[in-house]
Structures are given as C-alpha cells and as structure tokens.
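[step 3/7] fold_predict: job queued, chain A
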Amino acid sequence: MTQKMKAVKIVFMILLCIIALILILFLIWVIISPGKIRKYDGEKSLSEKFIIEINGAPNGFFINSVDTDNPVLLFVSSGPGTDDYVFTDRYKDMRLEEDFTVVYWDYRNMGIAYDKDYDMSFITLENLLKDINYVTQYLKQRFSKEKIFIMGFSGGTHIALRAAEQYPEDYYALINMAQCVTDSCDRDTLMYSFMKDVFTSRNDKASLKKLDAAVEWQDEKVKCRNWYDYVYLLHKAGGGTIRDRSEFEGIALPIMLCRCYTIREKLQYIPAMKKYRTTPLQAELEGHDYRKDLPSLEIPAYFISGEYDYNCPWELVKEYEEILEAPDKGFWLILDAAHSPLWENPEKTCEIIRQIKEKNNE
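[step 4/7] structure written:
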C-alpha cells in the first residue's frame, strides 16, 4: 500500500469517527429531548402541555400544579416572543406550582406554538390583549375561579401590565418580574454606567472600547446604537439573563439540554423568537415610557427585580413603583440575581409571591 493510499485511509477513518460521534451525540440529544414536563403525585395535581387555536392563531400552554384548588397564576412569557418554561425545567428549585396552578402561556405563534407559515403581521398589541382576555376567561372557567393572578416577565411585562389596565376585573393582582419601564436614554444610561464600572474594575480595556463604540451621547445621557450588541456586553458584565452567565450559558445551553421541548421545538425556538422582532408589536412598543403612559392601575401591582438586572434596570422599576397609583403596591430587590430572580433565587422570590397571594386571594 502506497503512502498516498495510507493517508486516504486514515482520512476516511477519521471522517467515519466524526460521523459516528455526531450520530451518537444526536441520539443522546433525542433521548434527552422527550418534550415532557414536570409530573406530580396527587389526584388534584396537573401537568399539561398543549396548543390550541385562539382568535385564529396557535397558542401554547404549559400547566403545572400540585393542587388545582390553589389560585391560578397566568405567566406571560418574555421577549416578547420568548418561551420561558425552559428555565422552570432547568432550575429545579423553583417550586411555584406548590402554591399556584401555574399557566405558562406561549402567546400567538411563539415557542411551542410556532408555525413558520403564520402571517406575523397579525401579531399586534391589540390582538395579544384579545388573546389574553380569552385565555383568562378560559382559565377562570376551567378552574372555577372568580379571578386569577397575572405575572409578566421582562418583555412579557408589557402585555401583563396592559392586560391589568384593560381587564382589572379579572385579576387579583399584577406581579411583574423585570418590569420594562422605558426604552429611553434613561435605561441605556443606567446600563452603560453599570457596564463601565464592571469593565473598569476588571481593567477590561477591550470591552470598554466596544462599549463606547456601542453608544452615542445625547447631552449627558447615552443611547445604544444596536440593542443586540449592547445586551451581549451586558451579559459579559454579569447583568444579563442569568448573573455572570453568557447568552450561550444562560439561554442557548438550557434550551439545548432541557427535557420540556422536543428536538423540533428546540430547533424552532430561535426562529420564532427572531421573527417576533419584526412584527407590528415590536414597532408599537418602541418609545414606551410607563412612567408617563400608564401612571395608575385599578388593581394591586407588585414588582420584583434582581440587584444585577440592567437589562431592565431595577432603579427604573423602583421609580415606577413609587410613581404608580394603585390600591396596593410593592417593590422587592432580590440579592445575587440579575434578570431572572424567580430562577436565580427561587426561595426568596417564591416566598414574596406567596405573601402576595395570601394578601390578595379573596
């Protein structure tokens, strides 16, 4: 056998090994992706995952409950357009379903409800508010409740807050985590200051250079030029989705490794999320400032933030809570957490939500 033939044989064997390894890894990925959610013992427990059509559009649901006699909590996912059940699957210490029947809602054409052929021009704030009203009535009827609790997370706080304003008779209280307050220079400047302090303390000159290139100055405040570059730097500074975790570690890896999605659902997660960035809803939410646009509510409103959350800076959330007129209100800052205190510090956060439930459940 010539040297050339030996080299070809070696290359062929290496390729076979690589293909075999890829097939093995894919098989493992399939095995750890059954699309199953938490199960519980008990005749009144409930674990469901399903898709139904609401107002002509697919909507997805994950429902977890140890006891369906408990109050219902409608969880409005983030983004908008990002399914958050993955974090409940990933961070096992979060046991909110012991106190509530927790309904994670994937609103129209996001998450498990994604359909690549759906016309995204129908994703408007008006349609989402019609959808959430339908969902709320469905949950009230199904679980025999006069009212339910509503909780928004990050981008989902837009929808939850406006639903609380439009349909106050349906909810005991609003509980929003990582409230979006404004997309003005006030937000970007707080983010900038946080990142600059972190990078300066690390003597990270490269990141400081990127940070300055990512903003433009308007008087004494800054405005980011590109939100995605800005958030990438925020994750690097430790103020992103999960404290001190990169976007890959905090978001992509949990999606890849979770059991709650099938392979197909995992592969459609990101396309669904990205398409939401091109909808009429995205344009409608630009320029929001709830300090001016929504200064009062008819129901109690409570806000939870992480001390390292500069995606939705906690200082603005605290300011909004102080301004807001409501029958009852409160603000809690969760230590050692960034954007996702429900999963980063579940014991403390769940205890706060439990206290809110006991205070408002008639």
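[step 5/7] annotate
The two ends are 85 Å apart (CA to CA).
The chain has a mean pLDDT of 92.
exit 0
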